[in-house]
Amino acid sequence: MPDKDKKEQKPITPEPIPIKRGITADPSIGEIAQVTDQRGRPVYLARKKFKIPAWLVAAIVFSALMIAFFFVIPQLVDRVSDIENDPQATDLLPPDWDSRDVEENTAVVQVAYATLYAAPDKKSARVAEALLNEAVTILDAKDRQFIYVLLKDGVKGYMPREHLAADTLSVSAENKVAKVVVRVPQKRVMSHARLGSLLVEAPMGTVLFADYRNGDLLRVQLPGMRVGWINASGVALLPPNSPMVADETPGPLFVATLMAFYSSPIVPGGITTRGISLEGAIHVSALLQGIELSRDRDTLIRQGEGVRGSDFSSLLEGDVIFVHKSTDMSAIETIAVRVSDEQLLVALPSRSTVQLIDIASPTSQELEGRVMAVRRYIFDRD
Predict the structure, then answer these.
(1) Mean pLDDT across the stretch 58-68?
(2) Which of 49-58, 77-86, 246-255 has the lowest mean pLDDT?
(3) Fold match between 170-238 and 250-376?
(4) Which CATH number applies to 170-238: 2.30.30.40, 3.20.20.210, 3.40.50.2300, 2.30.30.240?
(5) DSSP of 48-83
(6) What pTM was computed for the model?
(7) Burial 328-346 (b: 16+ CB within 10 A, else e)
């Protein structure tokens, strides 16, 4: 029998446990703009308005005023004063210039340098390069992207249309005060005499014409009916119709100019320090001595005077050496130039930049065994 002393145990009825599901409104908020989930995190049902802090607005306005005060306004004042002090500054083109006088088969390079390709395709072989403001003869303009052109030294190739300008005012000596020949690797041409922006960097050998001069500042005509400003440092200034004349000792100057291309990247057909071929370097260096040589190596090997013998130690500074391929004695593999200090300036196929090597080095001796020809283009005056 059950123990009488034990109290009767009544069954315990469990109270229901409230379970919060989803999200619930926060009673502290008058309108349902924000509710919380079961973890108490706020959930916004209406878009919360974003306000820009007052301090941020003040900072932006202050910065704009400072930029205008210290940079924009001074440049505008300087440019206006320069134009007012220069009576010819607004006369950018001669009043009697007529576009109908432009030769239909002539165009002008309007970029720092333009590449000529073997075919109307930038993936085709590079033939050569032409310098800023160099005039070219149009041979065929049927292609929509390329023009088949002829350079002054006889080189032909396809040049992108966008690299050429139709007007020839920039290569005309008429109404100009000086011919400007760039003698440094790169010459900056600015949009204005003071505080201007960079228009183009003219490579060594570029020929420009100035129609106005004020001290060391010159205003030059650029292709595409544009004008630019340069200073007189690093350029040769000649009368507008005067040709470049060689110095009394052109040999050392020819070699010194060639040395400016030392360590430059080797680029087939290249003609600037940004990318050079030895034939291109010889073409530019000779141009600065008033001597016109081809930038095509197959033509260059037939120019100048032949030098007998292939002993590098007996060559004069400035003599140019043509080396044939080891597998083809009729094909030019590379070019070297005898320079000072018993060295050669050479573009070796195994190197990416123009090198200097001693004539007594194993590399030089190997090249000596594959000499096709040695040519001399520069002769010092007696």
Answers:
(1) 70
(2) 77-86
(3) no
(4) 2.30.30.40
(5) PPP---HHHHHHHHHHHHHHIIIIIHHHHHHHHHHH
(6) 0.73
(7) eeeebbbbbbbbeeebbbb
